[in-house]
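Entry type: protein chain
Record version: 2
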Amino acid sequence: MKKMRPFVMMGATIGLAACTLSPVATTGGDGRILIKSEGAVETKDVPIQLAPDNGASASYRQAQATPTFGYGITYVARVPAVTVGSGLVMASDIKVDGNTAYIAYNTQGERFAGAVQILDISNRLQPRITREIQFTDLKVNKLFLDGKTLLFGGGANPDRYSFRSYVGKIALDNLDAGQIANSLRGLRSYATTGIAKHGNRYYVGVGARDGGLSVLDTDLKETAFLAYPDVRDLDKYESGVVAVAGMTDNANPTGKVLMVGENDKTSEIPIQNFRSDYAKSTVQANVHQAFLGLSQLGFQVVDLKSNATVFTLPNPTSDPNHVTNSVACDGNLVFVANGEYGFRVLTLGDTKATGAGFATLVGYHSLMGEAYDGKRYSANDLRYANGYLFVASGVGGVNVYKVEPNSK
């Protein structure tokens, strides 16, 4: 049975732990930023079963999928997409920290709107929205959590701002729409595509044309710029920052994994045939390995010490709606977002191995059927951490799953 939580407005300066909320919403940036509280969450409690992934070759599949998986996955909630102005915005990026999750929302094309949702996930069966920050002229593509500060970036409406790409800050212990508006900093190129931190500097990917990595100090002032067109995403790894870049709107002969170390020294690993074509592409660092979601090229793992590709998993079908949008790894589990196909699940084996010994494909789950009220959701982005799996589905919002080891 569905359970809906009420929606009330709040004063922008009330902290996250506040118990009493103002009935009046406050705004910043000439009314372009609005902070609200207590969004509606549709709670579920539906165990799901993984189906055999018949789209993969036998070398990738586990002979007996679900019985030997060792984990139970329960569909616990659907977080509806945010309505900004007169239209929905699309879930685009997710970050998880302890008992809190942060969700970014953006739009496609020339409509500029976005949002950031903050979820309390301390109750595993009933996550709830605690804050919702809406932007009427900003797309929010990416998030980065730095202690009690949440950095966000995306694309800005050029009719309202003097820049297209931007980054800003949200003080999580003192939400204030005016402070958020004042924190915005314009960047180069057209949109922010990723944010990471190494040492006391932020690295912000911008792209595609004339794009690269903007190196910022803690006040978000640019101190250097590394020209690498079509940077799609980046992450921190043990020796610096790792990014993935495509071939869109540039003359590079291949895509690449870019590593940035001390003093911004860079090195590259080519990714043959990776174009990106503005498609969703992600990187998650796991010690000295990069887990890559490469759109039309599927899922790949690159060792950042040896420069070798140690694992590849092709897309499940040739359908362009089934490409690899995102990859998430935590512990010995890997989840892969494959659009309308759903998400695939792998278990890690010997991470020093190459090929089939590195990971095993367990199965997949399509986001459709009775549990989803007869609708079909696309797995566009995902994040797995602390026993939670979050799957972003554009204007379908975010589906939340609890992942727990089976009891013996």
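Comment: The chain has one helix and 36 strands.
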